[in-house]
Amino acid sequence: MKEIVLAGGCFWGIEAYLSRIPGAKETKVGYANGHAENPTYEEVCTSETGHTEACYVAFDEKIIDLESLLNDFWKVIDPTTRNRQGPDIGSQYRTGIYYIKEADLEVILKTKEQQQKRYARPIVTEIEPLTCFYPAEEYHQKYLEKNPRGYCHIDLNSL
C-alpha cells in the first residue's frame, strides 16, 4: 500500500471522491500540516491552527499508481485559488499534496507541471512533506455516506 494526504477544500467531498477511485483502499479525513496539536474541528475553522482539512488515502499501486491518483485529484480542485474551494473560504480549505515518502516528490512535481499547462494563473497548491495529520472527529469520517444529502462542492459523478 502507498499513502498520501490530499487537501482540496471541504474534506467531506474529497474523501467521498477519493474513496470511489478504484484502488483506494482506505480514506480518513483529518487536519494536516498545522502547528496546533490535536486540534478540534472548531479550532481548525478559526484558521488559527495552520491546519488544512485533508484526506489520508492508502491505495494499491497494482490497481492505480500515484500519477493516476493525482491526475484524478487535480480534476476536482481549482489549484490556482488560494485558501478557497467552491464556496468554502479560509486557510483550512487550501489545496495541498502532502507526501509521506520523499521518493513521491518527483511524480507529484511532474503532475503539477503537466497541470500548469491548463492554467494561465500559477498553481498555488501546497506540495510539502506531511508534518502531521490528526484524524478528524468520528462524525466527519465518511460523512457523505452517513449523510447522502450533505453538502459537497465536488461533482461526485466526475470519475
From TrEMBL:
Catalytic-site annotation from UniProt:
10
**Could you say which enzyme class this protein belongs to?**
oxidoreductase
Keyword Acetylation (UniProt)? no
Residues in Peptide methionine sulphoxide reductase MsrA domain copies: 3-153
- Catalyses which reaction(s): L-methionyl-[protein] + [thioredoxin]-disulfide + H2O = L-methionyl-(S)-S-oxide-[protein] + [thioredoxin]-dithiol; [thioredoxin]-disulfide + L-methionine + H2O = L-methionine (S)-S-oxide + [thioredoxin]-dithiol
The task this protein performs is described as: Has an important function as a repair enzyme for proteins that have been inactivated by oxidation. Catalyzes the reversible oxidation-reduction of methionine sulfoxide in proteins to methionine.
Task: Check the record and name the HAMAP family matching this protein.
Answer: MsrA
Question: Mind telling me which NCBIfam families this protein's record contains?
Answer: msrA
What is the name of this protein?
Peptide methionine sulfoxide reductase MsrA
Lineage at the top is:
Bacteria, Bacillati, Bacillota, Clostridia, Eubacteriales
Gene, per the UniProt record: msrA
